[in-house]
Design goal:
The chain is of the alpha/beta class. It is built from six helices and seven strands; from the N terminus they run βαβαβαβαββαβα. It has a seven-stranded mixed β-sheet. Helix 3 (about 75-90) crosses helix 5 (about 150-155). It is globular and about 45 Å long. It starts with a strand and ends with a helix.
């Protein structure tokens, strides 16, 4: 399995490239921090970055491994995921670059659930993802099996960019979200400020 940080968005509402925003003191920007988080998990061989082709060289210079979108068109998570699955030929643990409160403990719940499901019904598993109490899923914080690639690629070629609906529900293993704040993202400067306050609070309350 590899880890994949989604960093190819345009960050329109954020006002600047949020993948390069710095929130954790001394931990680099959000892309670098997210890569280290994924790479720290047992079973993850390495972490890569899903990006637009124009971003690739800067990521390489930063010591990161880019996987550029291979198809033309607007950047979408589905496009990046398809490119990563084809490049890695193995399962992919994916998360966006704008989840500054995500933790290794929460991501490990995905890996534990995936392991259990594979032991029971390996052929029926395409994706392991979180589900909120209200039924909403988190398809961008999930493990995608390599066997999901044909269906994801077909959806991309047909212009069906919704990553949630690209796979049948029978292929999902759903994991209850343990801590809602872990999934707070930062699409705007205001959300970034909120995240920084929460991060500061966690740091100040560490024993």
């Amino acid at each position: 399995m590899i880890g994949l940080v989604l960093a190819g968005g345009r960050s329109t509402r954020f006002g600047s490239d949020k993948s390069r925003a710095v929130l954790h003191p001394g931990a680099g920007n959000m892309t670098e921090w997210s890569c280290r988080l994924l790479a720290s998990l047992p079973g993850v061989e390495y972490a890569a970055v899903s990006c637009r082709p124009a971003q690739a060289e800067a990521l390489r210079q930063a010591g990161l491994l880019p996987i550029p979108d291979e198809a033309e068109g607007a950047p979408t998570p589905l496009r990046g995921l398809v490119a990563a699955l084809k490049a890695a030929s193995t399962a992919v643990l994916v998360m966006p670059c704008d989840l500054p409160l995500m933790t290794a403990a929460t991501l490990s719940l995905l890996l534990d659930a995936r392991k259990k499901r594979r032991e029971e019904h390996s052929s029926a598993l395409l994706r392991t993802c979180f589900v909120h109490a209200d039924g909403r899923t988190e398809p961008l914080v999930a493990v995608y099996e390599f066997s999901s690639l044909p269906r994801l690629e077909a959806a991309l070629q047909e212009g069906r960019f919704g990553i949630h609906s690209a796979l049948p529900s029978w292929g999902d293993s759903l994991v209850p979200c343990p801590e809602e704040t872990d999934f707070l993202n930062m699409n705007t400067p205001e959300e970034r400020e909120r995240a920084m306050l929460l991060i500061s609070g966690k740091e100040n309350h560490r024993p």
